[in-house]
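DNA polymerase III subunit gamma/tau
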Amino acid sequence: MAYEVTATRKRPKTFDELAGQEFVAATLKNSLETGHIAHAYLFSGPRGCGKTSAARILARSLRCERGPTPTPCGRCPQCEEIARGSSMDVIEIDGASNTGVNDVRQIKEEVLFPPTSGRFKIYIIDEVHMLSNNAFNALLKTIEEPPPSVIFIFATTELQKVPATIKSRCQQFNFRLIPIETIKSLLAQACREMEIEAEDEALFWIARESTGSLRDAYTLFDQVVSFSDGNIQSDIIREKLGLVGLDRLNEFADACAANDVAGALAKIDELIGDGVAVEQFVTDLAGYYHSLYLLKAGVTRESLLGYPPERFSAKVLEKLDTQKLAHAGELLFDLHRDIRYSVSPRFELETLASKLCWLDRWISPAELAEAVNRAGAVLKGDVSRPLAQGAESPRVEIPSPAQREIRDEIKPGQKGFLSEGFKAYKAAKEREAAALSAMPAVPPVQPHLSADVQTVLKLFNGTIIKSGTE
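Tokens:
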């Protein structure tokens, strides 16, 4: 018997076998039981999550000799033809290679003919978002008012590219990414069926690397089985995938928490020497700090962390709070985005490592804003040239409003110069006193900068990082 890949061998044949899509399976089963069958369905979601498999199961349920039924028998000629892909009344079309108006016109001509056998003629169009706008427009009328025996099932990974006029004429089902625990249990089941031994951690890394795609997990599983000699171990997985592993991530994070830049750089050199790609290390490190962030926030579920909580570095958790761990994630996200365009990815990674080593001294924007606000209460004037400790500001004589009014009102040499001058001076002083009493009280300006102002200035000048005591 010819070898069959695991993804094909384990392809679901009923709605109950559709992993991770319980809502979709339950809704379609209920519609089949009640006879509420739509003329067009739109399945959307990430790759490898079961869209095409669900379309084939739905086609089998509709064309089964016992159907329409939510549980097709799988033994009648109709079910067997669909399983082999040889049914003349279940037409699968690749939307990526049949994108033009002429392809749609051919479909419009074919739907006028009844099915050769069975109740329904079913069109499954995969990657439907690849159709051109003219092709979509040509298909509108047929989708809205198809013959009673014709059913369309569309599948797409990019729902946003499907026109709203198409979506409004279909029943939409959104497929989710499959949880890691579900993929892990299915991989363990495949190991038992193939009589292969596998470490629990090794299956976890395969499931995690698949990023929610069961098809990708089965493909990677087949590759690992090919050279594992019947025993899948975690070190084999790390070598195959170029992964770092939790122990080495803990060692790197401990060096950073101890402000040991040389130790962190030595760990990077060791990992790269073992064949770990820079981009893979950044990806694993981002996942590691994400788990630390969840732990610091109080999350202890192993399904979210990937490992038991006690396996993570206690030193890092003790030294860093959630804000600093979140900032580490931001640094890693930026590096992961920029590293593909870098002329020296390793140098950028080493620069990031030095930043992580000083992460405990990082000041968050909220803390900086608070320090600036406190400094603003005592800082008056230009802070670009701060006064020395204990120095006094130079005094500049500025004429008061009363003195300026006297100069304008009294001219030397006028008749009654002294008496008129006294009256003008008195009136001006009274107006000045009234104006001052209406003004809010202003705190006195301190002769030197406060501690908050000095902290802000040191931060901007870089001295707060240079001195380990501040």
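DSSP finds 23 helices and seven strands in the chain.
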